[in-house]
Specification:
Blueprint (H helix, E strand, L loop, with lengths): L4 H11 L4 E4 L6 H10 L3 E4 L3 H15 L3 E5 L3 H16 L3 E7 L15 H4 L6 E5 L5 H14 L3 E7 H4 L22 H12 L4 E5 L7 H11 L3 E3 L4 H4 L16 H8 L3 E5 L14 E6 L13 E4 L2 H8 L10 H20 L11 H11 L5 E4 L3 H9 L7 E4 L8 H12 L5 E6 H6 L4 H7 L4 E5 L5 H9 L14 H7 L5 E3 L4 E3 L4
Parallel strand pairs: 1-2, 1-3, 3-4, 4-6, 5-6, 7-8, 7-9, 9-10, 10-11, 12-13, 12-14, 14-15
Antiparallel strand pairs: 16-17
Length: 513
């Protein structure tokens, strides 16, 4: 087999356990895609748009925790990757992007499709480097992969199509990245943390994605402190279910009970969350934060104590130092508030005997009830995220993905493609808004072409729903948000996917209603 730089990339990815590469073929990528074809060990997942490829790779990386790979051809192909890579970077997903470049001899003289990838990808990656000669590739590729895995984010290798076709006689690395370290704050800080909590009366916990893997420790902390737990959107997966201390979310799409639990506490403990909205933090409470990222400490709220460490490791060191509290009055009041808020939300999802309309709350509740116990849900930014937050029941096996940090439209279908590719035996459900779905509708065809049985639920609002609500809440007239939609069910049928349109009156495959 010909030993080229492109073959070296393929062989290195194989050694690292990569199973697939998402992308759109193009002339500057020909050497790489040919190497994948010839070696026949890594699947090339043929997408219709590079943004979809990056979102799909990011979804796979978030679900598996392993390195996922996407690729784009020179110029526009690279540019199309950027939005999905921004989402992966902000979600902490280990993704490697192979960014093909224009011919190396033409760099710097305004050639056809010329861009400067090393600059373009800087803001959405931990590492980006141009390979200008095959001899550079082994060390650059290994470092890129190691950085993506160890720092949980994006790394980009830029390589011209002609350089990828040059000969390279090298062996892939045998070591890619270290195992995650144990990060625990110094003992005196843990002791100070315990002293602060032992002296507090009304403690609330705000839990985010950093609590994944630390559920037992978080619940033990809440039990010892008799503290209500408010979860951020990315904490829903691991914290909300079967939790006797949970009082819902806060923020613009949260519950009044979550808002009150944070505003009324005398001590707020932030556990692995970057919840962004400052106006929802308490004004007078003491605030303590634990996070694995130093830049996150104090980023949203003034801190009385900030501890750099893994949430689980830190809490295991903290718990023996706590004096368990007996007074449940603050917790019980917060739980009663949550029960009342939950009752009102659940009432909106009930279906009357003779409904005149189908409401999205009803749809999301039914989807949750019917979905598999280990289903993977993806939800679009906007109102689908609201309904997912309020009506999807996660039980520890189910997963939920969205563009929760980057906030990009059109993510749900694209992430569902990555989820279904990585887990062909699991049920994957995309909860899409009509605005988000139609924005990247071209990759709906990929479901049929790739044989992916994703269940796509499109909420046909006829408007950019969340934007419309924001306009009204801000005192603006709701302008420039109307959508003239096709019959999505009929469109699905035409693309080889079963389509059913539902309203309060009837359901019909590909029909008018």
């Amino acid at each position: 087999m010909t030993s080229t730089a492109a073959h070296f990339i393929a062989e290195t990815l194989e050694a690292a356990g990569v199973d697939r590469v998402y992308g759109v073929a193009g002339d500057s990528l020909n050497g790489f895609t040919e190497a994948l074809r010839a070696r026949d060990k890594i699947q090339w997942v043929h997408m219709r748009h590079e943004e979809a490829a990056a979102f799909a790779a990011g979804a796979e990386a978030q679900l598996t925790g392993d390195l996922a790979v996407c690729a784009g051809s020179c110029g526009p192909g690279n540019l199309h990757l950027i939005n999905g890579l921004f989402d992966a970077q902000r979600s902490g997903a280990p993704v490697l992007a192979i960014a093909a470049h224009i011919p190396s001899s033409e760099i710097g003289i305004d050639y056809f499709q010329a861009t400067h990838p090393e600059s373009l990808f800087k803001d959405c990656s931990h590492y980006v480097e141009l390979v200008s000669h095959p001899s550079m590739l082994p060390q650059v590729l290994e470092r890129a992969m190691r950085v993506a895995i160890a720092r949980r984010g994006v790394a980009v290798v830029v390589i011209s199509g002609d350089v990828a076709l040059e000969k390279l006689d090298a062996k892939p690395p045998t070591w890619i990245a270290p195992a995650p370290p144990r990060v625990i704050p110094p003992a005196d800080q843990v002791e100070a943390f315990a002293d602060l909590l032992n002296g507090a009366q009304r403690v609330t916990l705000l839990c985010g994605i950093g609590c994944a893997g630390a559920r037992p420790e978080v619940l033990a902390l809440a039990d010892a402190l008799k503290a209500p737990i408010v979860h951020a959107m990315r904490g829903k997966e691991s914290i909300e279910h079967d939790n006797p201390f949970d009082v819902g979310m806060t923020g613009f799409i949260g519950f009044s009970s979550g808002y009150a639990a944070m505003k009324d506490c005398d001590t707020l403990v932030i556990l692995g969350s970057g919840f962004p909205y400052r106006q929802f933090y308490p004004n007078k409470a003491k605030v303590v934060q634990i996070d694995i990222s130093p830049e996150a400490l104090g980023n949203r709220s003034r801190l009385d104590l900030g501890l750099l460490g893994d949430v689980g490791e830190t809490l295991r060191a903290l718990l023996p130092r706590l004096e368990p509290k007996a007074d449940r009055s603050f917790l019980d009041a917060a739980l009663a508030h949550y029960a009342k808020a939950r009752e009102g939300l659940d009432a909106l999802a009930q279906i009357p005997h003779k409904p005149s309309q189908v409401h999205p709350q009803q749809v999301t509740r039914i989807v949750s009830e019917l979905a598999a116990k280990d289903a993977v849900f993806t939800c679009d930014v906007g109102t689908p995220t609201v309904w997912a937050a309020r009506y999807l029941r996660l039980d520890g096996q189910r997963r939920l993905l969205g563009s929760f940090n980057h906030g990009s439209m059109a993510n749900a279908l694209l992430q569902a493609i990555g989820a279904q590719s990585a887990f062909p035996g699991r049920q994957v459900v995309s909860l899409s808004g009509d605005g988000g779905f139609s924005m990247m509708m071209g990759d709906f065809i990929s479901l049929s072409q790739l044989g992916l049985p994703v269940k796509v639920v499109v909420l046909n609002n006829g408007t950019l729903g969340f934007v419309e609500m924001e306009m009204k809440a801000g005192g603006f007239l709701d302008t420039a948000v109307d959508l003239q939609n096709p019959n999505f069910a009929a469109m699905a049928q035409a693309m080889g996917v079963k389509g059913v349109r539902i309203d309060a009156r009837a359901r019909s495959p590909g029909g008018d209603r």
